[in-house]
What we know:
This protein is α+β, with helices and mostly antiparallel strands. Helix content is about 45%, strand content about 15%. The protein has 4 domains: about 1-45, no CATH class; about 130-330, Palm domain of DNA polymerase (Alpha-Beta Complex); about 340-380 and about 460-500, no CATH class; about 385-450, B family DNA polymerase, thumb domain, alpha/beta motif (Ribonuclease H-like motif). The protein has helices at about 5-20, 50-55, 55-65, 70-75, 80-95, 110-115, 140-150, 170-185, 195-215, 225-250, 270-285, 340-350, 360-365, 365-380, 405-415, 455-470, 475-480, 490-500, and strands at about 20, 30, 130-140, 255-260, 260-265, 290-305, 310-320, 325-330, 390-395, 425-430, 440-445. It has a 6-stranded antiparallel sheet with strand order 4-5-3-6-7-8. Strand 6 and strand 7 form a beta hairpin.
Amino acid sequence: NMDQREFLEKVISRARQYFRYYSLGRERVDVWRLKNPMFSAPGRLIFSYSDFESLGLAGLEERCRFSMLPPKMAYRWTAGRLVDSRQCYIAFKKNYVIPRSENLNLVVRSAWEIHLNDKGGLLQSPVVGLHENVAVLDFESMFPNIIVRYNVSYETVELDKVRRKPRGLLVDVVEHFLKRRLHFKHLKKKLNEPYRTWAEQRQNELKLLLVSSYGYSGNNFNRFGNPLTFEWINRISRIVMKKVYEIARSRGYKIVYSDTDSIFVKREDADIGDFEKLAEELEKATRLPIKVDRIYKFLVLLTTKTDVNLGGTKRYYGRLLDGSLDFKGVEVKRHDCPEFVKDFQYRLADKLLSGESKEDVYKNLRECYNIVAKAIDEILEGRIPAEKLVVKKVLRKDEYKVLAPHYVASLQLRLNGYRMTPGDIIEFIYVNAKHRNPLMRVQAWKLYDGRSYDKDKYIELLLDAAESILAPFDFNRKRFYNLDLNDEMLEEELIETADIL
């Protein structure tokens, strides 16, 4: 759990005990004269293993190319600062004056004008429930493509129009790396390992930088920023999505959900060719690249966690045509969810969506209820290995006003000699979640002494995961506890309820 600076400080401390000089980098360093540990490894790049897994050297290279910075700086800088570095480089090449690092970016308008213009992308709330034969049509890098195609930049936007000339600074920042990102995105499908992973790292990092170029465009910390730029990108995206809705509906498709740059459509008799034909028509009409991203055999759109009457954005799961499962916004995708709960939720969705038709899915409900009951029994009987119940959360601050479970675990570790800093992943187990003293509710995993875990708390987490999957089929914990799973009429009752929903 050591960060870069802590690691180097420990190495230097050890070196001072035994040596005067050492060569962690490419040159010998006098450890007694060294003041800043960040300069202790000249010619070497040191970064955490977790970052190495996600970013990789390929992703780091893309950061350096984009920002024109050396690796050590590109690795540490945030996406916004990397965008700023690129903008300054382009401005310098064009002989532009580079303004101060902070800019008020104010456009004087009435509150009503701001209300009318300062909006995000266009969304359609999900049609909650089970759907068959659903295709996801996704624009490729929609916002960067809008910037390039419509010349949207800080100096080209006005209240009522976007000027086609001169060529915008933001266009020069985005265009080359947009082409580069799409190149690696398509190339990775043709490659074998390790080249596939390297291409994925490159396109992921470029995606982050391109999205940041859009999000950073109206930010007060952007020295070139102009809120009208951000507003015009969103306004054009709304116009594009409105046209997409009209065309899809006119071709007999039902839109079950849409996000800012993607649309979920279904039609009973449609096949892969029909969906691809629709994508081609939409691309011609909008002049923006759009592809069939994936096709679901079954798709379940979910409600929000807080209101069962409201469809939740970015919350769904389904079975793709190749048989694999896809999840979004549920416990399986969360980093802070115990492994046992993730495995349980995956098995539940896998069983529910097995079969060839909606009727088969409804018939699977009884078996799903049995899976929930068996998992609860495993917890009550203490048959779950403790390592599968570990909860992981990121420590965001040094101090919290509230004694949250992961903060309590970090305090326990500090008292036992561990150094905890913001960004560390804290692992802990619930031992008595309802204890009057918050300091007694959890135990840090590194200090776990084998005591019994809090069974009620883990059953609660398990039922949360079950409700995420089965809520559209009228599952809730109160009803579950009142059901007789041995009742021969239960299956018919569950199917009847699902049909009504």
